[in-house]
């Protein structure tokens, strides 16, 4: 399972860098997205239990523009990550998403 997680993270990073998972246009949060995927992907991927993120993931969350990253979430990304887990990770790391925040097509309850 660890290998499959690393493969998923690697493939996701390749797609992000190539621009296939992001909406068109370069945003200022590209580095944030790369850091979030590198450190936090394992905590938000489908399937699996909801677990608390690592300190490294939280460091990236705290310094990232989460709203900008949310604006870059596509339907392809939403097929690979569990948005409820994203909400959990950001809240656990002390940077909760406000109710009504839109991440891709997902709206934070």
Automatic annotation (TrEMBL):
Transmembrane segments: none annotated. It comes from Eutrema salsugineum. The keyword Transcription regulation does not apply. PANTHER family: BIFUNCTIONAL INHIBITOR/LIPID-TRANSFER PROTEIN/SEED STORAGE 2S ALBUMIN SUPERFAMILY PROTEIN, BIFUNCTIONAL INHIBITOR_LIPID-TRANSFER PROTEIN_SEED STORAGE 2S ALBUMIN SUPERFAMILY PROTEIN. SUPFAM superfamilies: Bifunctional inhibitor/lipid-transfer protein/seed storage 2S albumin. Gene3D superfamilies: Plant lipid-transfer and hydrophobic proteins. Pfam families: LTP_2. Keywords: Signal. Residues 26-103 form the Bifunctional inhibitor/plant lipid transfer protein/seed storage helical domain. This is Bifunctional inhibitor/plant lipid transfer protein/seed storage helical domain-containing protein. Residues 1-25 form the signal peptide.
């Amino acid at each position: 399972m660890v290998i499959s997680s690393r493969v998923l993270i690697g493939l996701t990073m390749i797609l992000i860098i190539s621009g296939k998972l992001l909406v068109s246009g370069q945003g200022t949060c590209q580095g944030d997205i790369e850091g979030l995927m590198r450190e936090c992907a394992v905590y938000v991927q489908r399937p699996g239990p909801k677990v608390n993120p690592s300190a490294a993931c939280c460091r990236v969350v705290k310094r990232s523009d989460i709203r900008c990253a949310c604006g870059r979430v596509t339907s392809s990304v939403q097929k690979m990550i569990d948005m409820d887990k994203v909400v959990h990770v950001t809240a656990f790391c002390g940077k909760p998403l406000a109710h009504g925040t839109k991440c891709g097509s997902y709206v934070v309850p």
